[in-house]
Design a protein that fits this description.
- The structure is a homotetramer of 360-residue chains.
- The longest helix of chain A is centred in the C-terminal third of the chain and has 18 residues.
- In chain A, strand 2 and strand 3 form a beta hairpin.
- Chain A has 12 helices and 15 strands.
- Chain A starts with a strand and ends with a strand.
């Protein structure tokens, strides 16, 4: 449930509500909205829900209590109606602009990374991607350069000014990845690696969480909930295709997830057409499709010479293809950005206020 | 295999090749391209393939023989490199423009249909849709008005000038549906109803074939192959979502299918966001997404008062929503239409000429 | 809803209830159970449900009215608690024994069919299968011998005494297939071909309905409901695998469907491991698995020389493999048949009587 | 590729081959089979494959070199033709018997665990399961008792003599879990958590690896390959259902995976019907089905009072239901165990020797 505080609530009243919630064995999370404070009450409340609601409604400074039936709380639009905007160096994600995260699948060498970093920066990318620790299906495949790659990423960032994003695969890597790079990525295979989610929730870096290829939209939000509940509000979601019976593409990109997520959550949504399709020549049309359905960003793999790549050779764009993509992509985003309505009004009514228990 | 005739081939040489193919127990289909004739040889050739290729290569007027490994032949880009353009009344589908097929899920009454027909015509729809025979999951649900609905569709067409499309559910209905309406639709559940495909292949009306929700892209093309092989080249394909584990949306719209199909086949591709999502408020963003990935058309369900609809109440747009959609949709199409490259050059090389057996 | 008549209800009272139902625009279906009659009321009742229930409860001879929330009515266990037993020639399907339907994928010649028919009969098969009209993905593949195959099936039946089953692909074929063979099969691709379901509902032959590879269990039951509602109570269900992302097997055999269906419906359930796996060597373990979870029958493809088969060469057993399978299969069935509890008591409580509106 | 050593090969020759492999930058793994040694050569060999094969074939003591196209090597039947048998305390897994792993979803208290441990031991269970660290979809759900639960498991093992299995969720937990329990479980959500797989590969405890609900059989084997390649040969595989469009059951149990895995790999295979179906009343028929298709073991959740369980209340058996299951299960296993052929001969020919490069 959410406790909506009155506009006139004092600091002391807010503290009083939070203490009461803690005393009940639940955890309070507050969100300072544009004009008032909302406090989410999370934990297993069980049968005393009705009683607790009544008790909280009676506290000074409380305006209404809103029950919430969805399993995700802190990541829900009901809790936090305005969009979350993630700022990192000069990049702003979720403010209505289109973030472009580009770079090689794997960092293979300093030269390869710097060459591509300079190129994508020059063509409008706003975040540099590059894998250091690679989750590979086979134990015998190239597993990434590890810390050496992190150093190259840090250098590339210094040279280009671009913030960097790289995947982190286990709790123990979180600190070092956070030391060298700007955004932590949790990959599709680790979307429900709860130890990793908790660790990522305790670091002062934004986290991009990729949807598992076998995961529903609700499970993606529950995974994000772990990170936010552990203390990190700067979560970016990424749709990268789900597993279906279709075999022409590696996965099936679920573009309906973009407007759905914008309705259900305040977190920004990025689309990754490279991993979704597994085919270089499908990246451009689906990147355009992603921008057209309202994505906050696009992530694409770019390599100076894709045919020599140590991983994902089939799906990385070469430099010329990336330049061609960017020529098309940004104008499409400009064109459609005003077309999508406010997610608060386009979808079915959110639960805000519905069934709310007014104080008086 | 395909027999590519020389530019200088005479009528008699072409006939000679076709007779030879028939004599071998195979069936020849010719396609008169921009500058030459290609003859597809279909049937189960078995082990004598190599010998047959050599023999055909030796006939007068033959330039090359191209083997084709894909199971779809007449619907493939290799056979027919230029786009198929379907013309029906004033509508042109597949010429680079955006066809908008709109109208109610079911024709429920003359008034309802005429009201919506006039409205969608006024807001830019180019084809009128409306169900007469309805495939319903339950035998106890409304099954459509049948022939009475066909008569209303014919009247609506006369009044608005719009060509009409309606679903046909069995071979016996093909003639009457063809008598009253302009485009026959074969629904997702009947995509592999081969008797119906054959019947639709023998009628002088374009056919829109919807992808089954459990069907691969290759199976969609094989189903289209039935219609074309039976004699009807005017087939329109429709992506309407596939079945996955995700439950927020009714199905998962596979927008990658659009550029894939444009690469694999010469047939036009329409996207149906209404059935794919099952949610009215997702129709607009996914219609825009469909146009953005290069679809030749969009099909949407529109009802004057969706809440009173006898079928698909959840997903039909009302008139105002349709008007709002059209304001957004056509400019997006205009904007992106030049962005997608020629499907003959964007994807991997087609088999044309690859492994061809030259005559000389 | 179901109207449960009192044990003492007279013929006239029963007629009275049925007339009343018809007068309300609904359709009554009665089931004469072991000790009383239940009348299902089907049709779109809309908001007057409560009123209609009250009115029916007040009629003479009525004991209780049971609402039913499931969309399938006549096929539900609630309507018809005892198992449906299908009898055809000497075969009995659904009585606790194990029916074995065996024979070639396609009837390819009189000799081939008679050879296999005699063999499978000699090794315990109780029904002879063989395709006459073949639904093939490609229009250029062997489409079956048609009526000629039907004649061979009739002859094989006369010689062996086995009843025959063959697929029917369109409403127009129903009569001729019913003339020559004993059980009509509706294939997976036609599971939601409603015209065909209706036609099969009007013929005096049992129908085996295969689950579509993209269909849920509920949709399978709704498709069966079409046949039963059209007048044919002798429906056999068949689980033959659903489409998933796994590619080692052609489809994924859903053996949980067997106990689930036994709980939800009174219709017998057959398992087809040949089509599910697409691999000959997996037929035996999965046939055993099917028998072990309680299937009423197993359908397997058997060919004298599978490598020469005109269809499904990969999955047909040869004669020796069939003999080996039968040696294993029947004892497993004998062994497990007493292990599975009464479906009326094993699963969650059925809706029978739940929420029932008692008359007095 | 595999290097098959001659029966007469000396220790020195074996060492010579291994040194050569290491000098080439590849890694040798040897398997001492019944009558000879096979050395697997793993790593990215690239274009010098043919040359390397020739060179190895020329070394003293080498009989043949077998190329292997499958991506899994050490887990393949080709490398290790006899079954892997895992022994832990008195339990033997993979020797043809049926292992039954039973116990509560979560260890909730000492009493609850000891009560169930004694009961399942008394009714034939051979391994005690119980969750200590629980991977929960929601961060607000019960997360397990952690180390306290491990202590209860150790005590229960001492009292009953049963070896214990519990899930480990991150590399840091591997040591402590290995200290208190006998078999480490890696859950479906962590199947591709490569850091965890590597950590589990370095511990002296058997590991049961559950198939991810979005993972193919090949990916399951690749994940097992990580553990084996890291040094731990005692891996048990577990089929627990995959995600499909069917919603009656939580997942779709893929029983074809059992004979398939027995053909592809030497590792034992356990079936978990509790998680697959999510419904208590379906556990028995599918446990029987699992035994019938040849599983080496069954894992079931058992709780003294399932309705009070803190997790998975819907699917845990109560004690009486477990006793009933065991009465049925073991005789079925006894009955079918001789029916399934040798996996070396039932499926298609393995690659052993196929394309082998003989030395002479």
């Amino acid at each position: 449930m959410f406790v909506v505080m009155a506009r006139t609530a004092t600091e002391a009243e807010i503290l009083g509500v939070k203490s009461h919630i803690l005393a009940e064995g639940m955890t309070p999370y507050d969100h300072v909205g544009a004009d008032r404070i909302v406090i989410a009450v999370v934990g297993e409340v069980g049968p005393r829900r009705q009683e607790l609601m009544s008790r909280l409604a009676g506290l000074p400074g409380v305006e209404t209590i809103t029950p919430i039936s969805r399993p995700f709380k802190l990541t829900s639009r009901e809790f936090h109606t305005e969009d979350t905007i993630v700022r990192v160096l000069d990049a702003v994600i979720g403010d209505g602009g289109l973030t472009v995260m580009a770079g090689p699948c794997s960092v293979e060498s300093r030269d390869q990374l710097l060459e591509t970093a300079a190129f994508v920066k020059g063509h409008g990318a706003t975040v540099l991607r590059g894998g250091a620790f690679k989750p590979r299906t086979s134990p015998y495949s190239f597993q990434g350069l590890g810390v050496e790659a992190l150093r190259h990423l840090a250098e590339a960032s210094q040279l280009t000014g671009l913030p960097t994003i790289t995947e982190v695969m286990e709790p123990n890597q979180v600190d070092i990845v956070a030391e060298y790079t700007d955004i932590l990525q949790i990959g599709a295979r680790n979307m429900q690696n709860y130890s990793l989610l908790n660790a990522a929730g305790r670091v002062a870096r934004p986290v991009m969480l990729k949807r598992g290829f076998g995961a529903t939209i609700e499970e993606l939000l529950m995974a994000a909930e772990y990170i936010v509940a552990a203390g990190n509000p700067n979560v970016i979601l990424c749709e990268r295709g789900i597993r279906t019976f279709e075999t022409y593409t590696r996965n099936t990109l679920d573009l309906a997830a973009v407007p759905l997520l914008h309705h259900l959550t305040h977190l920004p949504v990025v689309v990754d057409p490279s991993h979704a399709t597994g085919k270089r020549w499908l990246v451009k049309p689906l990147a355009i499709g992603g921008a057209a359905v309202g994505a906050d960003g696009i992530m694409v793999e770019v390599h100076p010479r894709p045919d020599e790549a140590l991983s994902d050779a089939e799906q990385q764009l070469d430099h010329a293809q990336f330049a061609d993509l960017m020529t098309a992509l940004l104008p499409v985003h400009e064109h459609v950005r005003s077309l999508h309505g406010d997610p608060l009004v386009t979808g079915p009514a959110l639960g805000i206020g519905a069934g709310a228990l007014s104080k008086h």
